[in-house]
């Protein structure tokens, strides 16, 4: 009798091969290969990638002004008002230059050489004032328009322009006070206030941030 005979009913039962692990259960994967997920476990969608971590905003990102600060809006309105006054002044100076030129022509016709020379000088002076007022009006309008998209160049030019206007208004205010007439004080005082606000608006933090904001 041999116990090694598989047909021997009295021999030990044959050894069974180890059962294969059930489908869906974790298996020992070779090195470098990710293990399989068990059956029924939540699977990552095909083609999806892990979301990148959200990064906090950079410092000062929320401090960029979204609309023009109120002081700059006021300065822009003052620039437009000043440009209107300068345009009217240019028209008046041009009219006076034309009138002086007519007086010079009339003096030449009647033989008054002295009067003709004086009228020519007056016509030239009024003409220069007319051109200067027209140039300043153009500058005022340009600065006001460029407030929306302008950068540091517009900011610096506006500060200088407003400061010069404030100085002119201050000198005129001293002259008006020295004259003793109240009407001679109102105009220079308004000019001083307008020039001061125009010069200060781009310098305050809100104005500086507006002109330094990124433009796309």
**Envelope shape:** elongated
| Derived structural class | mainly alpha
Helix proportion: 55-70%
Radius of gyration (CA) equals: 44 Å
Strand content: under 5%
Largest sheet: none
Oligomer: single chain
Number of helices: 5
Please count the beta strands (DSSP E, at least 2 residues each): 0
**Rounded mean pLDDT score:** 77
Could you spell the SSE succession in H and E letters?
Answer: HHHHH
The CA-CA distance between the termini, in Å, is 98 Å
Low-confidence segments, given as residue ranges, are 52-62
Structure, explained:
This protein is mostly helical. It has 5 helices and no strands. α1 (70-110) packs across α4 (183-200) and α3 packs antiparallel against α4. Mean pLDDT is 77; it is low at 52-62.
In short:
The protein is mainly α and 216 residues long. It is 59% helix and 0% strand.
